[in-house]
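User: Can you help me understand a structure? I only have the sequence.
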Amino acid sequence: MAKEIFMPKLSSTMAVGTLLQWFKEEGESVEIGEPLFEIMTDKINIEVEAYDDGVLLKRYVDADAEVPVNHIVGYIGTKGETVPLNSPGSAGKETEGQEQTDIQTAIKQEINKHQTTEKPRATPAARKMARTNKLDLVFVKGSGPNGRVHKNDVLFHLEDNLKATPLAQKIAEAAQVDLNTVAGSGAHGKIVKADVISALPSKSAVSSDSESVENRRKMSGMRKVIAERMVQSAYTAPHVTLTNEIDMSKVKELRASLLPVIEKQTGLRLSFTDIIVKAAGTALGRHPHVNVSIIGDEIVQYNEVNIGLAVAVPDGLMVPVINDVSSKGLAAVTKAAKDIGQRARENKLLPEQLTGSTFTISNLGMYAVDAFTPIINQPESAILGVGRIQDKPVAINNNLEIRPMMTLSLSFDHRAMDGAPAAAFLTELKQILENPYELLA
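Assistant: Let's start by predicting it. Here is the structure, written out as tokens:
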């Protein structure tokens, strides 16, 4: 009986997946565990393996097609079996009996395994040879595209590593131990885990247990969310970072002249961050191609400039939002920035104050940090890192002068924009900050 091949559901929020490529043609034989096709979601790329032996009878979708989860994309069975000409669509209700239930259970189990373990890419021949030699492919370095392991890679690995177990090799690699200097105590002189551990320096960070770890603590909920979002951003958005130096002489003059005025109006002190936020909002208004997000396969350009301001809180980071910055004056920006900063530190932010940002600023200028590479706060496409203001010698009209200089670092998503328009925005921001009185116009 022919068995359905489904588009798997990789997460609770996944509705569709993109089938990137098939690894088998119709009519080719298939073994359990062989990769059938590769899919992409908004969170992961993964190879889907066969759960039955047989022949690939039918492929219903082509490469780069978007397919709903649980949709039937093909059939595996015995050569000559009849299958529907067109896809029956979603698996829908379980009308196929216990056999269908078993297939779905197997799919879910395999998906869970993929979500917790990075499975190496490998050709069917490489997988077969690895199974025969009881070799875990995670230990083999692949020479193919995207690190795909070929048969020859397995052969070379087996030839080069006959003298040590895979776990011993892994520990030796992590601890930078030369296996040629380690005596093996296993059968035929094979090096095992204990041999490598005994060869480590007494205070090595690599250990067979957790006794050498002085302090462990579980990630808080906020820390876990931050970790997940940072990993997602770093691995889904191709980051490019541009930097430039700003002469902050005139910003310092402007701040000094406006301090008493804004303090009288609002009761609050104007900060350099407030001026940078306002300048960034003005520059984004002139370069709207930076004020964008990638949503699905569309680039969405926003009419309003809503700037998220990264605020450090205990065990984490929050990014409350100042809405419609380009229409606000410096006094209003100062009031909004102080309000969200205080609310963040006191954990009193309203839900609407944490959503809707179109661009983020992360300021580490209060620390001894000159420049850094900020990670994009998705779904935004750019983030500005701000370093400290430091007096430096600068050439001005062929004369050496000491000026207060500050470095800006713009990280942007290269999928949404190219280097030239991003550089144009950063250049515009530099010009505004070096001529800040135009912010009062």
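Now, to help you interpret it: The longest strand covers residues 382-396. The mean pLDDT is 82. Let me know which part you'd like to focus on.
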